[in-house]
Amino acid sequence: MRQSWPSLLLSTLWTLLLLVNLGSAKNDGRHHVKEFTLNITSIQHNPDCSNYTGNVLALNGLIPGPPIIVTKGDRVQVTVFNNLTPHTPSENVTAEEDMTSHASIHFHGIRQYGSTEADGVPFLTQIPIAPGGFYVYDFKVTNQAGTYLYHAHVGMQEMSVYGAVVVYESEEADPAQRAKLLLSESESTKQHNQLKAYGSSYDDERTIVLSEWWHRDRVEFEQYLLGPTFNGIWEAESILLNGKTVYQPIQVNPDACRGYEIIPVQKNKTYRIRVIGATAFRTLGFAIANHNLTIIEVDGEPVLPYVTSFLEVASGQRFSVLITTDQDPTDYSIGTNRRWTDGTVPATSNGYAVLRYQDNISEAAKSASPSPKRRSLWSRKLNNNTPTKSDAVLKVPKGSFVFPPETIGWIWDKLTPFYGAYHETRRPADRTIVLRSTDEKLSDGSTRWFVNGISFKDPARNYLSQVLNETRAELVAMEDEEPEYANGYDPKSGMYPVRQHEIVDFVLQSTHTATLPCRSHPWHTHGHSHWEISYGAGDYSHDEHGALRSDHPVHRDVTLVYPSTSQNYTASNPPPADGSIGCGWSKIRIFTDNPGIWALHCHNTAHMFMGMMVAIEEAPELIRETDTIHSHD
Ligand SMILES: *[C@@H]1O[C@H](CO)[C@@H](O)[C@H](O)[C@H]1NC(C)=O
Ligand SMILES: *[C@@H]1O[C@H](CO)[C@@H](O)[C@H](O)[C@H]1NC(C)=O
Ligand SMILES: *[C@@H]1O[C@H](CO)[C@@H](O)[C@H](O)[C@H]1NC(C)=O
Ligand SMILES: *[C@@H]1O[C@H](CO)[C@@H](O)[C@H](O)[C@H]1NC(C)=O
Ligand SMILES: *[C@@H]1O[C@H](CO)[C@@H](O)[C@H](O)[C@H]1NC(C)=O
Ligand SMILES: *[C@@H]1O[C@H](CO)[C@@H](O)[C@H](O)[C@H]1NC(C)=O
Ligand SMILES: *[C@@H]1O[C@H](CO)[C@@H](O)[C@H](O)[C@H]1NC(C)=O
Ligand SMILES: *[C@@H]1O[C@H](CO)[C@@H](O)[C@H](O)[C@H]1NC(C)=O
């Protein structure tokens, strides 16, 4: 039965009153239903102890927002309230067009099988939530587990609107379940109660969210990116780890600074550290002084253990690594650097945190942090660390690490899926679609990114409701031979249509002009994980590069296309006439098993905002049939 708007609002408010802030669990007969509430508001914030306090968007008053922690098989309902005040539109923009205070949340890496309307992409899957409104993201995580994130998907809002999503593989991998077990077990059996995931055992886990902090206003940033004065993306002043760092340690007022994030550990144990790339721009190096990192998961995909001294974390990527606390018990620095910056900014970063062996700190400080047993199941924090003020660390602790030089492809070829190679990666593709990205200055002096000559713009109406409503141009049968599908693009719908159960390769072709450096681009697939089956320098050529390169690529949802030129142009060897020079490509593959409207875009948020995105229309005739759990407009 359809509820009237006031009664729906009332019942929603009732539900909220019944919840203890962050989350609650119930059962819908088939799944555990876990409910969360995220409120978008504006707060005054200074996370890096600098002299800049910004007025920024936050979730439930927090940056990062509260973690969403669920178990594989759960149904998840996240109610997002937009509690922003409407933005005063500028001269030539109507209140409806002005999206500055509208919002949506994307659950990055969650494949949204049968729930494309919960994917959070403005005008692809929903109309952004207006100030005063709300939207219920309702989805199941039945077939995936690991480390994910959520973030805003409108404009540059994800500069401050992001948080961790953790999907436990099983009850055995959930520390809270383990804590309950520990309560009921004798001392003698406790030591056998390790957490387990993909053949690895560990004693506990921690999460580290990497992000950026600009000493700039978001709306000003958005106007700059689209305006005529654009001259490169502004570099963030700080790199944050779990929302904290120290901008300039020399200038800090110790009474007003929370210092670096402290990650507490105990000696002689193994920890799973989930590292989440919630940056909007840079690819970051990540390392822990004196500790190697054993990668066991990438983007929710289990991999065979691989030992490395550092991670390279592109925007939107996630890793789980194991560390063993076998060093002298003291504080160690956790550090980051900027990678693939074209040499235009220093690689050094002020993003640090502290790995603290707790055995070394006073008993008093130890008892200040709550024991895991006393933590309730749903009011969870990421890490069990509430340092007292006197604990705040304002200086980077001991330990040095060197970030090795950048290498095209990093270690990606060396990673192997835990469950073995996928047969989809060994078959020929049904179709190969080349997406060639260019940036161009327009006649009004502004700059846009284009993919195959089209700079993505929000459609006038939400694509998904057009498809569900059957009011958009008739769904024509897809014929590759038809000229209107040149390179797979359908100008009638503005999308790239794909059939169900196809193997589709996308060649992500980077270009630059001879006067500008080649940039790196972290491409993200919605609704699917993909395999990077090949990559190379310069321009892709189907005859030369059509063959598969890797025989065991991992299934992930972000691929960094590395800048990689194949030729040096000179006066006697001039670049191509159109001025755009191929400077590196990756070929990624999806298997189209998830009908829906899916974004495929550069996860450098400024690039996406400037048009570097396409929409995939996958088996639209099946979207309604598979959409079983959602009913609201
Ligand atoms: C979120 O916003 C709603 C609606 O404005 C309000 O009723 C609720 O108390 C807020 N919840 C939190 C956790 O701030
Ligand atoms: C803030 O600090 C920067 C250097 O970190 C300095 O250039 C600037 O003048 C300071 N601004 C104020 C208002 O103190
Ligand atoms: C609004 O449009 C007019 C006419 O096109 C133009 O002259 C003016 O500069 C625009 N204002 C803004 C703020 O873009
Ligand atoms: C560390 O663990 C090993 C094996 O469990 C044990 O033999 C050793 O004594 C432990 N060392 C410390 C310092 O606790
Ligand atoms: C890290 O691994 C390398 C290679 O296996 C090894 O040489 C090095 O000693 C290890 N470092 C630490 C701190 O364990
Ligand atoms: C830990 O102990 C070592 C010596 O055992 C000491 O040098 C170091 O400062 C201590 N660290 C902390 C954080 O107390
Ligand atoms: C569906 O189409 C009708 C008729 O064009 C229109 O009035 C209605 O708003 C559409 N609904 C949605 C959800 O787009
Ligand atoms: C281009 O020139 C640089 C500097 O001379 C050289 O290091 C590089 O190998 C050249 N690249 C190619 C593809 O020829």
List key phrases describing it.
633 residues, mainly beta, Immunoglobulin-like, six-stranded mixed beta sheet, 9 helices, 33 strands, disordered C terminus, binds 2-acetamido-2-deoxy-beta-D-glucopyranose
Report Rg: 24 Å
Detail the poorly predicted runs. 1-21, 363-379, 625-633
Instruction: Give the % helix.
Output: under 10%
Taken as a percent bin, the fraction of beta residues is: 25-35%
What is the name of the CATH superfamily of the largest domain? Cupredoxins -  blue copper proteins
Q: How many distinct helices?
A: 9
What is bound: which ligands?
2-acetamido-2-deoxy-beta-D-glucopyranose
CATH class of the largest domain: Mainly Beta
Please provide the count of β strands.
Answer: 33
Structural class: mainly beta
The chain-level mean pLDDT equals 86
- Write down the CATH topology of the largest domain: Immunoglobulin-like
C-alpha termini separation: 14 Å
Give the quaternary arrangement of the chains: single chain
Let me know the largest β-sheet.
Answer: 6 strands, mixed
